[in-house]
Amino acid sequence: MSAPGTLIEGNARVLGDHINTDAIIPATYLVSHDPVELGSHLMEGLDPEFSSRLKSGDIIVAGENFGSGSSREHALLAIKGAGVSCVIASSFARIFFRNAVNVGLPILESPEVVEATEEGDRLHVDLAAGTVENLTAGVSFSVQHYPEFMRRIIDAGGLIDFIKGSDLET
Amino acid sequence: MSATRRILAKHAGKRSLQPGEFAEVTVDLVLSNDVTAPIAIKEFERLGRKKVFDTGKVVIVLDHFTPNRDVGSAEQCALVRSFAREYGIKHFYDCGDVGIEHVLLPEEGLIEPEGVVIGGDSHTCTYGALGAFASGVGSTDVAAAMATGKVWLRVPEAILVKVTGKLRRWASGKDLILYLIGKIGVGGATYSSLEFAGDGIGGISVEGRLTVANMAIEAGAKNGLFPVDGPAARYLASVGVEASEWSVGPDEYGYSDEVDIDLVDVEPQVALPSLPSNTVAVGDAPDVKLDQVVIGSCTNGRMEDLMVAAQVLKGKKAAPGVRLIIIPGSPRVYRGALKEGLFEIFLDAGAIISPPTCGPCLGGHMGVLAAGEKAISTTNRNFAGRMGHRESEVYLSNPAVAAASAVTGRITDPGEIV
Fold it and tell me: Which value does ipTM take for this structure?
């Protein structure tokens, strides 16, 4: 039995390689940190219609180096604010990856899942068990677990809540 | 151990660290700006702390959308300003003290070799040129570090970049880093350190090294690192920082990979749209008609950059219809350029001289591109839409190539016109 909040189901929104933070949220919108406002411009640098087609609960499935470029956490706020439930990519850029851990955005690195997913496929993700099932294609995959240290931050709900009750406290 | 791991181990209170390990390290400097500080402040306040860990180790620079672009950016600056006042932040740069953060901090003597710097800006890696571990992080990390003085890190593998030979005419640190990114790709160093060594390093100026380290992130690296040699130690002494010399890379077992570059192979480079790895020698660049040329930024907004631009532009004019925007990176660079007579040369060439700001590099303001427009720029990213409309194009180069291109209105080898 998985813990509550670790089961995600949604439709895949497929993107390519090197989706950078300027594509996710163009810098001109970095004068707000309201997730809903930022979410209304999600992927505008790539496709201005993306956010209007997006449905709450959708899962972004992308190629290599997702989230490259700037350190802006607005990118993660926009993804969360638009209602995206999870991001699965072949690989993530380093700062985006740590930001996702720090703000509690579920992300999974799995080239196999990306390879086997097409636009609109229904995906079922079990974060605790580390599995992704493509319900449309009828295939399932095990994905790599987070290292223990990151798991503790994620389980706490992000870095700030982790620090509130941890040994990082000075 | 790689030099990066040696620095991190010292800050983690350990004798050694292995790649892949997680470590909590103490930080010597925590940086943010008018774009990343507002979220950091909001998260910091959630922690309920009465003070920051050290008022002398927190730096905030209002450089991205300043002078205030619009009401939204003005509100962000106002929020940051009141935080800086309330918490007694000693290194808060506002008004006429503003420079582009990564040009400004080394000049201010805030970067110490073998120190740990984290910043809510991906180009924080610039400071590795002075022997510091420096890495870009998000606002939440900045908030946590402002409160605790610590950051969690996954200990990186390291790639040794061995540089030999001498820079060619009109080539610079910018060309070395573009050439390297072209070779290893935009994900070529993801999660790793890029450590620079070899007898070719000595011939690259400290300003050139700041340019190289600045773009380590464009290869996905966690940090870029140079040793502290004679020139670096002299630079540090000139800004009031004591440093002893040390080298990178004697222990060949500390590195997961090695890349060898002979500078004789490094011609002035141009990165074509829309990835910094999409590099060609300037002579092989396509013949495109340019609408804008930008010389400046945290990558190439230092005195040496403006000097070489002036050398190319002297007695010449920007081609009709080309908007040539020159951005001295800090008040010190601005004053230096004025004193050396560079403004005269730039104004005669028809340039627009901007105050220090990140502005056009990220399509913020002070030089945004319309649909279909093309720019050559000494900045660090040429992603689609980076400088404005998503159907505009950015070509990256060094200041000499950018200046020569302004004169002809197409991508040009400076050797052709000087």
Answer: 0.96
Residue of chain B whose Cα is closest to the Cα of A165: B47
pLDDT in tens, A77-132: 999 999 999 999 999 999 999 999 999 999 999 999 999 999 999 999 999 899 99
From the list A48, A72, A150, which residue is nearest B35 (CB)? A72
Instruction: Write down the residue that tokens 């809903």 correspond to.
Output: A36
A132: in domain: yes
Place of tokens 């420096």: B134
Fold of B269-416: Aconitase; domain 3 (3.30.499)
Contact call for residues B23 and B153 (beta carbons, < 8 A): yes
Domain residues for A52?
A: 7-162
In CATH, the architecture of B3-263 is 2-Layer Sandwich (3.30)
Token pair of B210, please? Answer: 């700041």
Helix/strand/coil for A18: coil
Tally of structural domains, chain A: 1
Smallest CA–CA distance, residue A73 to chain B, in Å, is: 6
Question: Is A1 inside any structural domain?
Answer: no
Query: Which tokens sit at A87?
Result: 């991001």
Query: CA nearest B200: which of B217, B188, B212, B192?
Result: B212
- Residue B135: which H helix or E strand, with range? strand B133-136
Cα–Cα separations (whole angstroms), residue B217 to A53, B38, B185, B192: 32, 23, 11, 10
Query: Is residue A77 included in any domain, yes or no?
Result: yes
CATH number at residue A98: 3.20.19.10
What are the domain boundaries of chain B?
3-263, 269-416
In a domain, A38, yes or no: yes
- Bridge partners, A61 (sequence order): A14, A88
Within an 8 Å CB–CB cutoff, is residue B146 touching chain A?
no
A130 touching B, CB under 8 A?
Answer: no
